[in-house]
TrEMBL record:
Region of interest (Disordered), residue spans: 1-21
Protein name (Swiss-Prot/TrEMBL): Diacylglycerol kinase family enzyme
Species assigned in the record: Enterovirga rhinocerotis
Top-level taxonomic group: Bacteria
Residue ranges of every copy of the DAGKc domain listed in the record: 26-152
Length: 317
C-alpha cells in the first residue's frame, strides 16, 4: 500500500514534470515597438523586427513614428518601449517616458546613431534583438532645459553658434545614410568659417564663462550631429553636463579637424557643471536635431533627477 498522500503510482512524476514545464515557460515581455519607416537598415521592415522580437521573448505592439497613434501608444505603455530609428526618434520617445517608470530599448537604424554609439549599442539587429529580453538595465540621465520656448528634455545637447546654424540650414532636407553625414560635416565647416563670436553671456553653476566663442554646446552625451565626438566619453549616469566651447582663435583647427574626418575628440575647450545658463542676442538655438529662432531671453539647462532605464544588450563600442 502506498504511503498516505502518495496517490496512484506515477502521479507524482507526472505532476513534477508538469510543474517543471510551467516553471520553464517564460512569459513574453510586452512592449511597444516604435518604428521609423524612413530610417535605414536594409530589408528590416517593422513587421520583420516585430517577428524577430517575438522569437526573442518580447511581444511587441508595432506603431510607426509619425503615424496617428504612436504618441498614444507610447503614453499607454506600462513597461517597455523599443525604438527602431535614429537619434531624433529616440529623443522624441524619451521625452514622453522620462517622467514615468518605462524602460527603453534601442534598435539603431538611423544615419548618425549618436545615442546608440555613446551607449555601446551599435551592432547588426540580428545580434541585438536576441539579447534584449535579458539585457542588463542601465540608467541614462536626461537633460532638462527651460526658456520662453517652454520645457525641453534632451539626450544629446543644446547649443548656440555654428552647429545651431548648420542644423537650421539642414533640418528640412531629406537626406539619409552617408549622404546625410557628409552633408552635415560640409555644412558645419561652412558655418564655422563665417560664424561671428557669439553675443551671449554664459554661466556654469553660477560662475561666468568669459571668451569669444563660435560654438557653445551643453552636452549630455559625447557625440552629436554627423558622428562628431565633441567631448571625451562621459559618464551617462554622472552628475554633470559637459560644456563644449569653440574659441574664435581655434576656428582653423576645428575646420582642419572636420576636413580630416573628425577623428578623435574635437579641439574644443571643455567645462563641466550641473547647471548651465545663457542669454543674449536673438539667434538660432539648437534643441536636439532641430533649431528654433531663440529670442535671447534666459535659458536654464540642468541635470536634475531625470533618468530613463535603458536596456544594454552587450557593449559593442
Amino acid at each position: 500500500m502506498p504511503p498516505p498522500g502518495a496517490g496512484q503510482p506515477g502521479e507524482g512524476t507526472i505532476e513534477t514534470k508538469s510543474e517543471a514545464r510551467r516553471e520553464s515557460a517564460v512569459e513574453a515581455r510586452a512592449a511597444t515597438l516604435v518604428h521609423h519607416p524612413g530610417a535605414g537598415e536594409g530589408d528590416w521592415s517593422g513587421e520583420r523586427m516585430a517577428d524577430a522580437l517575438r522569437g526573442a521573448g518580447i511581444e511587441p505592439t508595432l506603431v510607426e513614428m509619425g503615424g496617428a497613434d504612436w504618441e498614444a501608444a507610447v503614453d499607454a505603455t506600462k513597461d517597455l518601449v523599443i525604438v527602431a530609428g535614429g537619434d531624433g526618434t529616440i529623443a522624441a520617445v524619451t521625452a514622453r517616458i522620462v517622467t514615468r517608470k518605462v524602460s527603453l530599448g534601442i534598435l539603431p537604424t538611423g544615419s548618425g546613431n549618436n545615442i546608440a554609439r555613446s551607449l555601446g549599442i551599435l551592432a547588426p539587429l540580428e545580434e541585438i534583438i536576441p539579447l534584449l529580453r535579458n539585457a542588463r538595465h542601465s540608467p541614462l540621465r536626461v537633460g532638462h532645459a527651460t526658456g520662453t520656448f517652454g520645457e525641453h528634455f534632451f539626450l544629446e545637447s543644446i547649443g548656440l553658434g555654428a552647429i545651431a546654424h548648420s542644423v537650421k540650414e539642414l533640418q528640412d532636407e531629406k537626406l539619409d545614410g552617408d549622404e546625410k553625414l557628409i552633408r552635415g560635416r560640409d555644412s558645419l565647416i561652412s558655418a564655422i568659417m563665417v560664424q561671428e563670436p557669439l553675443d551671449a553671456a554664459l554661466t556654469v553653476d553660477g560662475a561666468p564663462v568669459e571668451g569669444r566663442f563660435l560654438i557653445v554646446e551643453a552636452m549630455n552625451l559625447s557625440m552629436i550631429g554627423p558622428n562628431l565626438r565633441l567631448v571625451p566619453d562621459t559618464s551617462h549616469a554622472g552628475p554633470n553636463l559637459s560644456l563644449a566651447l569653440l574659441l574664435a582663435d581655434d576656428r582653423e583647427r576645428m575646420v582642419e579637424w572636420l576636413s580630416a574626418g573628425g577623428q578623435g575628440v574635437a579641439p574644443l575647450r571643455h567645462l563641466q557643471g550641473r547647471r548651465i545658463a545663457f542669454e543674449g542676442a536673438p539667434q538660432p538655438l539648437r534643441l536636439g536635431d532641430k533649431s528654433i529662432d531663440w529670442d535671447g531671453r534666459p535659458v536654464e539647462i540642468a541635470l536634475d533627477d531625470h533618468r530613463i532605464d535603458v536596456l544594454r544588450p552587450g557593449d559593442h563600442r
